[in-house]
Task: structure prediction
Amino acid sequence: MNEFLDFINTRRSIRKYKEGEIKEEDINKILEAAMQAPSAKNQQPWHFIVVKDKEVIEKIPGFHPNASMVKQASLGILVCGDPNLETAKGMWVQDCSAATQNILLAVHALNLGAVWTGIYPREDRMEGFKKLFDLPENIIPFSFIPIGHPDEEPFKAERFKKERIHYDKW
Ligand SMILES: Cc1cc2nc3c(=O)[nH]c(=O)nc-3n(C[C@H](O)[C@H](O)[C@H](O)COP(=O)(O)O)c2cc1C
Result:
């Protein structure tokens, strides 16, 4: 169990990647982890687009100001929300966040590297992804996760803040 806690605590955003393919088997493991995320009423209101086409990936920094690292990535996963699949209205954002985090953890478990680049609720980014991937009207691009073979050492971060913890009342 402690190993698992260490594993969570050593996940870091990786923004530099070496060239190299990601095995189909690993892509499926990552997507399986994404779909094991908790969701409100187990509604699973998500879709995932696996993007391997470099020409497509290279267009992303044109409308996403903080995503220049995607150009080096072996592939990316676009996490999309589908409010039409909701049975618990308004919860899709939290569900897609949990799926995104599971992707990051699965990537870490496979000794690969990734970073969550945020899309929703920034209108210009959402518009860019909608156009680039020809998304249906009801589908909302939520996050884009470039994935590759790490070319940087993850830094150690101490983030435990006692003052942020409250017991029984504020
Ligand atoms: C909602 C959200 C949006 C983010 N968007 C970006 C982004 O657009 N570009 C980027 O490089 N990192 C992005 N990040 C990654 C954060 O910068 C990173 O998680 C944070 O600095 C903590 O570092 P760590 O992930 O290594 O622990 C985002 C993270 C979250 C949760």
Q: What stands out?
A: The two ends are 30 Å apart (CA to CA). The domain at 24-150 is CATH 3.40.109.10 (NADH Oxidase).
